[in-house]
Write a structure and sequence with these properties.
Layout (H helix, E strand, L loop, with lengths): L19 E3 L5 E5 L3 H13 L12 H8 L10 E10 L2 E11 H7 L3 E9 L3 H17 L4 E4 L11 E4 L15 H8 L3 E12 L6 H14 L1 E4 L8 H15 L10 H11 L8 E6 L4 E10 L2 H7 L7 H9 L6 E9 L8 H15 L4 E4 L2 E2 L3 H4 L6 E14 L1
Parallel strand pairs: 5-6, 12-13
Antiparallel strand pairs: 1-2, 2-3, 3-4, 4-5, 6-15, 7-15, 8-13, 8-14, 8-15, 9-10, 10-11, 11-12
Length: about 400
């Protein structure tokens, strides 16, 4: 079903024997992903390595496969990528993806490669060989630095976990063992940026500050929250949601504006999963312009664990129950995006007022934030009047090539 050729064109016609590279005659060899079966093994290793770990949440395999596939993911309109697997004695012991996002480099005036989709056993030889392959590939294409974990876009998994190993991961975040960070430091990778995550206790009543701010912003700015009655009502706003994300996130670390093709791709991927109770659209009444959006989703972390990341044979049932809020008291706050000219003017209060009412009514006890840049104090201040506890920290590392 999938044609998985995720290499630069000059490598695609090489014989498979040439894709097995011996690293300085060591026992670890590097294999480049060329085929559908290779990609299956690449994805599955990232799941099998965490067998029995109660905090690891596998990705949705269907989405992961599409993300890594050159013919499926429109990010390849401006990205090159290569995927490597490390083998020892015929067994996979590590994997890594390396990406050159040419659009990002143009915007940020850099010559950076990204690494991501990275997992490995606790072994120096394995790690050095794996990263050596990624760094060599990036260096041969004129890159000056490599940083990550990052994906093709800001909507992909990013940031290596450095605190919170005893906390369950989420649909949209990476879990990794503590030894990963030790190897990054040993190889000379330095901190580039941190993200933090919070667990918020959902109050039974909306805090007074949010109520006051809600009334003020409605009166002063003429803003209202649009309530939609069915999924089909979302689609007239769907593309504008992602265009708003482009404007709201444009100055954030590593962000690259989504293209029209990428917007179509994410509309098809994410809109069907939405719960209308946790979709807050803030509209300016005078012209029906979208000013802010907040998206929450009942946590599907435990369901993904039960399903091992797969829809079939029974994964769909676990995911369906989780999305309906069955046996589930945690809400994932997927994203909040506000028009730049309205940021800091109380629009977030409108969004949280809706979230709190819906979450409390439907029996959710906690909300988990998506990763927030540690230096983005305006975003972190949103939790000031709520019972919120920082649970995780994750990091992007960088190294000169």
């Amino acid at each position: 079903m999938y044609l998985c050729v995720c290499l630069c064109k000059e490598y695609q016609n090489q014989a498979s024997t040439e894709n097995l590279l011996n690293a300085n005659n060591m026992s670890v060899t590097i294999h480049k992903v060329n085929t559908k079966d290779d990609l299956k093994r690449f994805i599955q290793f990232g799941i099998d390595l965490y067998e029995g770990n109660e905090y690891f949440v596998p990705p949705l395999v269907y989405d992961e496969r599409a993300t890594l596939n050159m013919s499926k993911n429109p990010a390849f309109d401006h990205c090159d990528a290569n995927y490597f697997m490390a083998y020892r004695d015929g067994e996979i012991v590590g994997r890594i993806g390396v990406i050159i996002n040419h659009k990002s480099n143009e915007i940020w005036k850099e010559k950076n490669a990204r690494f991501g989709f990275v997992d490995f056993i606790d072994d120096e030889e394995v790690v050095d060989t794996l990263f050596g392959a990624a760094e060599s590939w990036a260096r041969s294409r004129g890159m000056e630095k490599i940083h990550g974990p990052l994906g093709f876009t800001d909507l992909d998994h990013e940031g290596m976990l450095v605190e919170g190993y005893d906390q369950m991961s989420t649909l949209s975040t990476i879990y990794n063992y503590p030894y990963y960070v030790e190897h990054m430091n040993r190889m000379g990778y330095l901190k580039d940026q941190d993200w933090v995550e919070f667990l918020i206790t959902i109050p039974k009543e909306t805090p007074e500050r949010f109520l006051r701010a809600t009334e003020i912003v409605k009166k002063r700015s003429g803003l209202v929250v649009k309530h939609l009655q069915s999924k089909k009502d979302v689609y007239p706003y769907a593309r504008e949601i992602f265009k708003l994300i482009n404007r709201a996130y444009k100055d954030l670390y590593g962000f690259v504006e989504l293209t029209e093709r990428q917007i179509d791709y994410y509309v098809d991927m994410y809109i069907p999963m939405l719960r209308l109770e946790f979709l807050s659209l803030v509209i300016r009444q005078e012209d029906n312009r979208l000013i802010g959006v907040g998206i929450g989703l009942p946590s599907i972390a435990k369901a993904l664990q039960k399903a091992r990341g797969r829809f079939v044979p029974t994964g769909w049932y676990h995911l369906y129950r989780a999305l309906k809020g069955k046996d589930n008291n945690v809400l994932d706050l997927m994203l909040i995006a506000i028009e730049p000219e309205y940021q800091g003017k109380g629009v977030n209060a409108l969004i949280f007022n809706e979230f709190i009412k819906s979450a409390s009514r439907l029996g959710f006890d906690y909300a988990e934030s998506n990763p927030e840049l540690d230096l983005n104090h305006r975003v972190k201040s949103m939790w000031d009047d709520l019972e919120a506890r920082q649970t995780k920290r994750r990091r992007a590392f960088i190294k000169n090539l």
